[in-house]
């Protein structure tokens, strides 16, 4: 049994409830992909070996009994003081989550759950790195009841609850915006999954192409056989096209029906095509704002706004999207609902010696990657000829895109060549200040300043790279003094 020391026993006997009976059907259907993987040899016309046959028999004997046992052992109860969850087949577990520790009740609905009128309820607490409790599955009405009841228990007395904060819609994504935003995305995740599946099924790209064209384009195959470099370029273009299409699909699935609204000091968002998720984002948990774009999006005037929060689950690494795709004016208007910020008009540059250091780094990394791929794909070695031009150009672009700005209440940091990011960092939210000097930086008289915020990802956080050493030390001292000053006074971002 797990119980917080801060919680007190409830004077009322908890009224336990069970999951919805259709949970059995959902769990059984969710287990079918594992069964299909076991049956793949039979589906491909191969003989099932004895080991696979034994596994199938065990699956049939154990799958449904385990699902039924989990259903019978799972129950939950909500009292004015705590949410109780009992579960476990072999190991019985009783979780007690105090009401005053619950920060967010997230309702998720997969496509199958929506067809059956069910929902999954996730419970998040302050400072937790993962979901503290999960109730899957209950009816949508029951999920809404749990959410509203927790909000009522955490709120004020009944006389004060009548004046609920007004709901203000801040942003709603139209179908046109959704398709346009997907066109600016590029994803190799599903592309890699497709090729992994082909490898498992013992299919080659040639088999797939031959099945698609069905022998009508033999002249293309002959041209590729006579010109391997042409085949390499065509393969890269095809991979880029598939990655672009995959990016559109992933983006549409994730942000379909996206809405963001505000109620008092909380923001709420809802989105999803197959899995509809609704979550609450308390304003006081926002640690930093990030404006994202890329060269193509920026050329057409499109941006995205994200908030870095503390205490969210590790799946999102503390980053939540507030605006997936909008004009810069929209981004700044919505950001003003979090903090009263204005983007800087002038940026401080880092040392030009950054170009030299980045050029060497890109030359070494590029040569290593291309030589490694050359063992498998010899034609790739031709790209080595472009490194002496590409590496300095990329280093120069990194220098041009990198900079910082010091404002009254915030430190702004911008970085990224292909993924542009502007970080807005309130001084009083800062956690750790680090000044680092690598071996090569010391030889060039450079240093990097990194500011850690609560909930920041381990990689890709805000960092001001390759400052002159004296400038880096002065900036560190100034930022730390601002941190102390803002912690002693009430800041607009608090």
UniProtKB/TrEMBL annotation:
It comes from the Bacteria. Keywords: Membrane, Transmembrane, Transmembrane helix. The chain crosses the membrane at residues 21-40, 52-72, 183-201, 229-253, 359-376. InterPro entries: UCP026631, YdbS-like_PH. It holds the Pfam family bPH_2. Residues 71-149, 256-336, 399-477 form the YdbS-like PH domain. The keyword Lyase does not apply. This is Membrane-flanked domain protein. The lineage of its organism: Bacteria, Pseudomonadati, Rhodothermota, Rhodothermia, Rhodothermales.
């Amino acid at each position: 049994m797990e119980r917080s020391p801060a919680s007190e026993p409830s004077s009322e006997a908890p009224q336990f409830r069970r999951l919805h009976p259709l949970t059995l059907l959902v769990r059984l259907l969710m287990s079918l992909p594992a069964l299909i993987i076991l049956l793949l040899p039979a589906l491909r016309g191969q003989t099932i070996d004895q080991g696979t046959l034994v596994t199938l028999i065990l699956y049939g004997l154990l799958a449904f009994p385990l699902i039924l046992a989990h259903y019978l052992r799972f129950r939950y109860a909500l009292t004015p003081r705590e949410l109780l969850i009992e579960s476990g087949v072999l190991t019985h577990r009783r979780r007690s989550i105090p009401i005053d520790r619950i920060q967010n009740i997230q309702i998720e609905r997969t496509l199958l759950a929506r067809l059956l009128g069910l929902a999954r309820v996730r419970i998040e607490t302050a400072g937790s790195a993962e979901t503290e409790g999960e109730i899957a599955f209950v009816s949508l009405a029951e999920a809404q009841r749990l959410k509203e009841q927790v909000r009522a228990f955490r709120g004020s007395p009944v006389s004060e609850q009548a004046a609920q904060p007004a709901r203000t819609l801040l942003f709603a994504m139209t179908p046109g915006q959704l398709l346009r935003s997907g066109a600016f995305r590029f994803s190799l995740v599903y592309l890699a999954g497709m090729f992994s599946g082909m490898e498992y099924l013992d299919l080659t790209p040639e088999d797939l192409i031959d099945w698609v064209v069905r022998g009508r384009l033999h002249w293309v195959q002959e041209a590729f056989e006579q010109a391997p470099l042409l085949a390499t370029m065509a393969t890269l273009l095809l991979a880029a096209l598939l990655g672009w299409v995959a990016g559109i699909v992933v983006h549409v699935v994730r942000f379909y029906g996206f809405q963001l609204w505000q109620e008092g000091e909380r923001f709420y968002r809802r989105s999803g095509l197959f899995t509809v998720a609704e979550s609450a984002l308390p304003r006081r948990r926002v640690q930093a704002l990030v404006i994202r774009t890329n060269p193509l999006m920026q050329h057409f005037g499109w941006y995205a706004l994200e908030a870095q929060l503390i205490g969210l689950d590790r799946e999102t690494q503390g980053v939540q999207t507030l605006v997936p795709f909008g004009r810069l004016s929209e981004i700044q208007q919505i950001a003003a609902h979090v903090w009263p910020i204005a983007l800087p008009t002038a940026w401080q540059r880092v040392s030009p010696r950054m170009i030299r250091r980045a050029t060497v780094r890109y030359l070494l990394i590029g040569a290593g990657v291309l030589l490694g791929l050359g063992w498998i794909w010899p034609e790739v070695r031709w790209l080595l000829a472009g490194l002496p031009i590409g590496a300095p150009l990329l280093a120069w672009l990194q220098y041009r895109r990198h900079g910082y700005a010091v404002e009254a209440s915030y430190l702004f940091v911008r970085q990224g060549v292909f993924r542009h990011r502007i970080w807005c960092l309130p001084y009083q939210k800062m956690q750790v200040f680090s000044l680092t000097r690598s071996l090569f930086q010391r030889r060039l008289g450079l240093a990097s300043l990194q500011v850690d915020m609560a909930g920041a990802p381990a990689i890709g956080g805000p960092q001001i790279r390759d400052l002159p050493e004296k400038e880096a030390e002065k900036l560190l001292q100034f930022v730390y003094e601002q941190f102390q000053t803002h912690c002693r006074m009430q800041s607009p971002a608090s």
